[in-house]
Structures are given as C-alpha cells and as structure tokens.
Protein: PDZ domain-containing protein 11
Organism: Albula goreensis
Amino acid sequence: MLVECQKPSAPVVAKKKVYFRWVTTVMDQKIPYDDYQLPVVFLPSYESPPAWIAPQDRIHHPDYNNELTQFLPRTIILKKPPGAQLGFNIRGGKASQLGIFISKVVPDSDAHRAGLQEGDQVLSVNDVDFQDIEHSRAVEILKTAREILMRVRFFPYNYQRQKERTVH
C-alpha cells in the first residue's frame, strides 16, 4: 500500500495535546487523518535503491571505488626559500574542533607538485601535532619554516564539515 503524506493543517488541541490533521493519499484516494488510529507518522518519499551489482563485477563498475589508499596518511616535503609563498592556504584550528585543513592549493606550485590537495587534513608539521592547534600558531609554524615535513591525509568528510562551520 502506497501512502503519501502531505503538509499538515492548523494544529488541533485535544486533551492538552496538539495534533496536526494530515490529508493522506492512499492509492489515489483521499482519506482524512481522523480515519486512522493514532499515531500517524510522516515519512519521507521513498527512493529506489541502486541496482544490485554482483561482487565480482564491482571492481570494474564505475559506481564503485575500492581505492582506499587515497585516505591513508602520507608525507609531503616542501622546501621554501626565504620570502617565498607556501603555495597553499589552510583553514580551521582548535576552535573548530576538526583540525587544520588545506583549503586551496595554487596550481603548478611546489605544494601542488608534491601532491597536496584541497581537503587534506594536516596531521603534523615538522613533528608538531596539528590536530589540536590554534590557527594562528599553525600559520606561524608554516610561514617560519624553511623546510616543511608535513603528515597529511585526505579527509573530505571533515573538510566539508569544517567549511559548513566557518562563517565568512
């Protein structure tokens, strides 16, 4: 039986409880809310699942990506001459509780050629833990170092959360 709920009406007060009357469609016929026993639950519309693909066929299927090595921590080494730019921007810090992330990488920069990418979480720089560090302290460490040994991991989920928390 297909049930599709629509927007509620004005609230109805009964026995010190507030109820909403719903107009419900069942197989193309309208049934008033009062004809159902309480409680009536509003459910989102149904979304069909993707077609099933046999496990042996998944390795070559475009909807499946089993390449998990992209999420493993890796080491980036950058040498920065005095006065030169880093080639990337960072966002986040202790206040966000999510860490420091690479928010932009300049194309054709040393950082880009070394494999740094937007969405990388900076785990450490020159053996300084960056997972719980103030943003200003992270910038200071990165700008003053001549040789940067970074431990990073691609973490797009937390990077997206970081962007959502940041107000510009």
The radius of gyration is 26 Å. The chain has two domains: 3-35, 71-165. The first helix runs from residue 55 to 58.
